[in-house]
Amino acid sequence: MSETRPKEPSTTCNNLICAGQVSNQSGVLKMRKQSGFTLIELMIVVAIIGILAAIVIPQYRDYASRTKWANNVSAVRAVQVAIGECANDKQDVGHADCQTDVTLEAAGYLPEGFVIANTQTSYMSAAPTVAGNVITLVGTSEVGSCTITMTPNATTEAVLWTIQSSGAGCGRSNTGFNN
Q1: What's the longest Cα–Cα distance across the chain?
Q2: b/e 105-120 (16+ beta carbons within 10 angstroms → b)
Q3: Which fold would CATH assign to domain 57-166?
Q4: Closest by alpha carbon to 140, among 175, 113, 111, 106?
Q5: Residue 46 burial (CB < 10 Å; 0-12/13-18/19+)?
Q6: Is 163 in contact with 148 (CB distance < 8 Å)?
Q7: Domain residue spans in the chain?
Q8: How far is CA 118 from CA 83, 92, 111, 163, in A?
């Protein structure tokens, strides 16, 4: 008594059965279902990711730099307010009491013991300065080593600030302020 065993699927190609096809017991050929991605599909996905990265990464760097500059500017907001109050009280943005952080403190526009060096953030290469009522900030290399000047302009109703950046590559996209 001989036992009949089903034929094993052929893995070699002959005149009836080729790779990817399996013969069942009746001799009818069936296709084996393939799964996975083709090389071209994978290459297209990689190309799309590369294009998106080339667009997004520079924009993210600019966004991060502008955020750090906003932090620098907000660190000296108390001095801006003090100059504005002084100019309003004295009716002159160029009044002697409004010229420096020391004169602003002496005139009572800044809290007693105010030290402008304490407003330096980790994105400033030096402490901010106030001279002639112009506030100057110098950034670290991480934010482009830019210099920001904040100049008050008095009108009859308010003190408006002109904020400008200077330095190579220190335009609006990097600092958020015009060059």
Answers
A1: 120
A2: bebebbeeebebeebb
A3: Glycoprotein, Type 4 Pilin (3.30.700)
A4: 175
A5: exposed
A6: yes
A7: 57-166
A8: 18, 28, 13, 21
Structure token pair of residue 69: 């500059």
Q: Please give the Cα distance from 129 to 138 (Å, whole number).
A: 9
pLDDT in tens, 84-124: 999 889 888 889 999 999 999 999 999 988 999 999 999 99
Higher pLDDT, 149 or 27: 149
Cα–Cα separations (whole angstroms), residue 154 to 2, 15, 86, 89: 110, 95, 11, 12
Q: What tokens were used for 75?
A: 């660190």
Angle between helices 77-90 and 39-75 (to 10 degrees): 40
Contact call for residues 17 and 29 (beta carbons, < 8 A)? yes
Q: What pLDDT is stored for residue 33 in this prediction?
A: 77
